[in-house]
């Protein structure tokens, strides 16, 4: 359950944002977290993008999108998911 994951890791936060004219303004890559394992990380953020304005940072691990858990997800799955979401939490 994503709520359990959030409560068990200090520093985890919920960010809500909506895509702008050019998307969220992030680049992602597949990587590995020492405790959580394989996942998706933010590798770049465009200036003044919805992602930057919502407080996301390079290096942040995306744990879930709209309650869909992404731990263990691969790059292609997350790329498709992000393309079809308008509002992201």
Write a compact overview of the structure shown.
By secondary structure, this protein is of the alpha+beta class. It has helices spanning 2-8, 50-53, 75-84, and strands at 17-18, 26-33, 37-45, 61-62, 64-65, 68-69, 87-88.
Topology:
Elements (H helix, E strand, L loop, with lengths): L1 H7 L8 E2 L7 E8 L3 E9 L4 H4 L7 E2 L1 E2 L2 E2 L5 H10 L2 E2 L1
Antiparallel strand pairs: 1-7, 2-3, 3-4, 5-6
Strand order of the largest sheet: 2-3-4
Name of the CATH first level: Mainly Beta
End-to-end gap: 15 Å
| CATH architecture name | Roll
What's the total helix number? 3
Number of domains: 1
> In angstroms, what is the radius of gyration?
12 Å
Q: Could you state the CATH homologous superfamily?
A: PDZ domain
Low-confidence stretches: none
Element order: H for helix, E for strand: HEEEHEEEHE
Task: Provide structural commentary.
The chain is of the alpha+beta class and 89 residues long. It has a single domain, classed as PDZ domain (Pdz3 Domain). The protein is 24% helix and 30% strand. The chain has a three-stranded antiparallel sheet with strand order 2-3-4, covered by helices on one side. It has a two-stranded antiparallel ribbon with strand order 1-7. It has a two-stranded antiparallel sheet with strand order 5-6. Strand 5 and strand 6 form a beta hairpin. It is globular, with a radius of gyration of 12 Å.
Q: Key features?
A:
89 residues; alpha+beta; Pdz3 Domain; two-stranded antiparallel ribbon; 7 strands; globular
């Amino acid at each position: 359950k994503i709520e359990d994951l959030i409560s068990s890791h200090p520093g985890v936060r919920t960010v809500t944002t909506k895509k702008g004219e050019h998307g969220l303004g992030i680049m992602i890559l597949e990587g590995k977290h020492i405790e959580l394992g394989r996942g998706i990380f933010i590798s770049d953020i465009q200036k003044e993008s919805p992602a930057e304005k919502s407080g996301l940072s390079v290096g942040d691990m995306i744990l879930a999108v709209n309650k869909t858990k992404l731990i263990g997800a691969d790059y292609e799955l997350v790329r498709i998911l992000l393309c079809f979401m308008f509002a992201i939490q």
